[in-house]
Amino acid sequence: MSQDIKNTTYFSEMKARVSGFERFRRVFFGRKIVVFGLVIIVILVITAIFAPLIAPYDPYEQDLKQPLAQPNRNHLLGTDSLGRDTLSRVIFGARISLLVGITAIALAGTVGTALGLIAGYFGGATYAIIMRAMDALMAIPMLALVLVIASMLGGGLKNVVIALSVGAVAMYARMMCGQVLAVRENDYVFASRAMGANNLQIMLRHLLPNCFPPLIVVMTMQMGVMILAEAGLSFLGVGIEPPVAAWGAMVTDGYRFLLTNPILSFAPGLAIMLVVFAYNMVGDGLRDAIDPRLRGTL
Amino acid sequence: MTSYIIRRLIQAVIVIVLISLFVFLLMRLLPGDPLMLFIATNELTQISEEQYQALLVKFGMDKPVPLQYLTWMAGLFRGDLGRSLFFDENVSSILAERLPVTAHLSILALIIAIVLGVTAGVICALRRGGFIDTLVTSIANFGISIPIFWLGVLLIYFFGLYLRWLPIQGYTSPFEDLVLSTRQLIMPVFCMAVTAMASKARLTRSSILEVVRQDYIRTAWAKGLRERVIVIRHVLKNGMIPVITMIGMQVSHIFGGSVLIETVYNIPGMGRLMVSSVFSQDFVVVQGCSLLFAFIVVMVNLLVDISYGWLDPRIRYG
Fold this sequence. Notes:
The structure holds 2 protein chains of 2 kinds.
Chain A: H1 2-17, H2 20-30, H3 32-49, H4 51-54, H5 86-122, H6 124-139, H7 142-153, H8 157-183, H9 187-194, H10 199-236, H11 247-255, H12 263-290
Chain B: H1 2-28, H2 34-41, H3 49-58, H4 65-77, H5 91-126, H6 131-143, H7 148-162, H8 178-212, H9 215-222, H10 227-245, H11 247-264, H12 270-279, H13 283-311
Helix pairs in contact in B: 1-13, 5-6, 5-8, 5-11, 6-8, 7-8, 7-11, 8-10, 8-11, 9-10, 10-13, 11-12, 11-13, 12-13
């Protein structure tokens, strides 16, 4: 029993001594799988930035003399039906993947956060209108919604990003709104209002920073969702237009040659899976480090 | 309780109206003249101005947009979703043909996802840190990360083309040929279930781990209850609540997956109908499909919310 008490005091002392950042560092880097995910993301970023230096060939250069080459010394992953080097195309695909993920999340995150902030802060009719609209948006299966919007806008990188962010916006609005509802009753919000702060000041200076941490977790996890959705769109043929090297479209291209050249579909799909896996693991790590209470809901 | 159900019902109706408005407006923003598609598919190139006007009237596109919406809405209550431009057939009868196929796949996928996912999650949580936990958790982590259309392609390659165990595409009604139907369904249903299964396992695991730490579980051990009783009566009952709340979301995901998987396996369900209609710009069908998908999701969410109180008497409907 005394042992227990000793332990408790020890832990509470340690908690007091360890700073917030230190705790974050320990929890986040404490799990090997999270570090592994982080390493993959770092590799992805480096690959995306230095793609022209890393790739052995130009991803768009066609070599019609050797289409559908099996993996060999010159072409480690073989070539596609137009004789383009598969490895180079997978490497360049990292750029699209990263770009789509970041821009879609930034767009959806900004708009969704703003909507959630407004809905949660003002409450009443504003809340009802915004949140019911978000419910409506969330009820339509995301891939179906994104497919319709992307095809309506006409495909291409920009339109895919817009479509994806419409598909993701409701999630942020809902999350943010819930956070705001919990935070806005705090004393510091009342104090600030008593000192004459206006609505905008309260929202930006007090509510936003206090509600944001869990949103970072959601954003990281949603990176994976965005990449999967983009790949799905490209697979269906409404995503990034050829000849741009996008992983989803490469899976589709390779599908026709599944029997003879399975690597054409396997390689880009594996790349998608690894990257999404990495985002999910880092998201898990961030969740445990920032706000463990979110476990069970995210 | 009754007032809660009524309020929740009104809310669901509002959401459905908003969805219909949203879907309708989205379709009207489509660039191009959808009637041109009808003209092209029916080889009516020599169409006169009068005939064109008659077609406008036939599809109700001569009226202003708000009136078109109201007409469409009025039709919804009679089960009339408008007329397809491409098939020149009522959308409701097309959907009546396609919905059972998607429902068949989705329900199977959902059942598999829930049963296997929850079981895996519970086992992992109870044997936390053990070999099975590590293995299953890793598989689940990959399960939520895998692009399902790619998984579909992989399965076709290994089980369809390489091992030749399963047919690689198509759908047969179970009432026609149960064996063939089942063989054709194995791969697509697995693909549709895999993400939901993995996320269920993850969710169940963390939810159960949370419950196991609670005081009442320690009390139960202290009382000397057997493990089986504690797990079934205390841990599962409390740990299942967040798992159940997510069902609505998972139905939505599975429907989203049907868009991809029905395309991969060439299954004539709503998902593939939606893709082909998007390509043929048959907006009346796309409208109907999205609305039906969303309607089912809203209904499932409604049921889940109402069943809450029954599952967890601590929840008071305020």
